[in-house]
Each structure stands twice: as structure tokens, then as C-alpha cells.
Amino acid sequence: MTEPIDFAPLAAVAEPLRAILDEVAARFGDDVRVSRDEQLDCDPFRPAGVPSESVRWEYNLRVAAPPGAAEILLTEVVPALNAEGWRATDRSGEAEVAYQFQRDGTNLGVHISRDGTGDVVVGGSSRCVPTEVP
Question: How high does pLDDT run on average in the chain?
Fold first, then answer.
């Protein structure tokens, strides 16, 4: 269960991210575990004590890899996200099948081990939003 976000502009971009990632992860199985669900500073080099100018939400999930996980990604997830306007980039390598998707400043990715072991990792981050509301 995700926690409510108390900063409305961030919640407005984080909630749709959570929803799409929950939907993608569910394609791989029911035992979905949240591994990250938090606000992050958009400037990782900001000195300590200096207030953030913008923040983003990062949400990551893990699902035990079912048989045929790579096929699910390629035949179900990629076409569905493309149809919703997400731009896909194949980042696959020898060890994993990996796709990254981008739309309107929001990023998400799906990573699956080629040997079928481990978890399917589904995660992403919202676009950055200013911390000061005009």
C-alpha cells in the first residue's frame, strides 16, 4: 500500500506514475512488492541544507519472473505503452531484456534477466516539479 503524498503538485504527477507501473507489474504476476516509493531531489548535487528547487517521485516494484516474462514484455507491455504514447527504447544486453519508456518528462523501465531467474523490475520516476507553488 502506498502512502499519500502531501505535496499536491508532486502527487499530481506521482499518482499516474504509480498507476501505470502497478498496471505493468501486474502483467507479470500478483506478488508485486514495492521496493521504492519516495520523493527525491531533482538536483542530486544540491549542497546539504539548501532547499530543493524541484522534486520528483520514484516508484519501483519487483515481481517474481514468471515463465515467458520477456515475451510478456515484448508482446504485451511494449505495444500497450506505445499505444498510450510512451516512447520505447530497447536497452537490452547480454544479461537482460530491458526497455525504457518516456512520456512528458516521466520515465519508466522494465528489466528482466535473460536466464529467467530473479525478479522482473518495474520502476520509474515522475517529471520534476518546482517546490515553490507560484
Answer: 94
